[in-house]
Design a protein that fits this description.
Helix content: 40-55%
CATH topology of the largest domain: Cytidine Deaminase, domain 2
CATH superfamily of the largest domain: Cytidine Deaminase, domain 2
CATH architecture of the largest domain: 3-Layer(aba) Sandwich
Number of helices: 9
Radius of gyration: 22 Å
Oligomer: single chain
């Protein structure tokens, strides 16, 4: 099939929109989903191929595409201003849906639950950000507090900033979270020292530090995209 074949000339069961209706959105490839967003206005171009080109431009990574600016997206042949804006809007909606789901006061009492809750919050950050999930006595979320922003690979945190927020929220406990932009969630010596300092401060204030989660990216040789300092045995004062 020529790359210049129009979508309307494809067999019905191969068109992305019809495939979505028949098999569901989760069964479609990323390029097909992008093609659905970009389809309107494509003249003589195969929208799925344009979708593939968009992904190739950003290394095949949806994360990299979500981080791209409208101007970056417009560098892809076949992507004009309106199509780039459409893609940017789609990723923004996805982020807002994640934020909306975080407002339902989940129970955050184990690493996997915390990571599921915070993964999208941290996936696209290109500098370290230190966060505290402030919890009530039943480990239900009170609110997320951004404690500090760092450089590319480091962030400075002082106990007074962490616990000032916890005291103001009348929190009984908290979970510490930060990201590693490098993708490797292995804790550094500074991460371990900071955690132990915060555990000691929490003991004095009667506010439990439940865990410290570092979020990175999964890879073929590292299937988990996070580390729990409690699980790694670093959780002692």
């Amino acid at each position: 099939m020529s790359e210049s074949l129009r979508l309307k000339d494809q067999p019905a069961n191969q068109r992305p929109r019809e495939r979505l209706v028949s098999v569901g959105a989760d069964a479609l490839l990323p390029a097909e989903l992008i093609a659905i967003l970009l389809r309107t206005g494509l003249k003589g171009a195969n929208a799925v191929e344009v979708g593939r080109n968009v992904l190739r431009k950003f290394g095949g990574s949806l994360t990299a595409l979500a981080l791209a600016s409208v101007d970056d997206m417009r560098q892809v042949p076949g992507i004009g201003r309106d199509k780039a804006v459409t893609l940017a809007a789609a990723f923004a909606l996805a982020r807002r849906m994640e934020a909306e789901q975080r407002e339902t006061s989940p129970v955050l009492d184990n690493p996997l639950t915390v990571v599921r809750y915070m993964r999208e919050e941290n996936r696209l950050k290109n500098v370290e950000e230190f966060q505290a999930l402030l919890l009530n006595s039943r480990k239900r979320l009170i609110r997320l507090e951004i404690i500090s922003h760092g450089l590319l690979d480091t962030v400075l945190v002082h106990p007074r900033e962490v616990f000032r927020a916890a005291i103001a929220a009348n929190a009984a406990a908290l979970v510490l979270v930060h990201n590693h932009p490098s993708g490797d969630p292995t804790p550094s010596e500074a991460d371990i020292k900071t955690t132990r300092d915060l555990i000691r401060a929490g003991q004095l204030l009667k506010i439990e530090v439940v865990d410290h989660i570092i979020i990175g990216h999964a890879s073929p040789d590292r299937p988990k995209d996070y580390s729990s300092l409690r699980e790694l045995g670093h959780f002692y004062a």
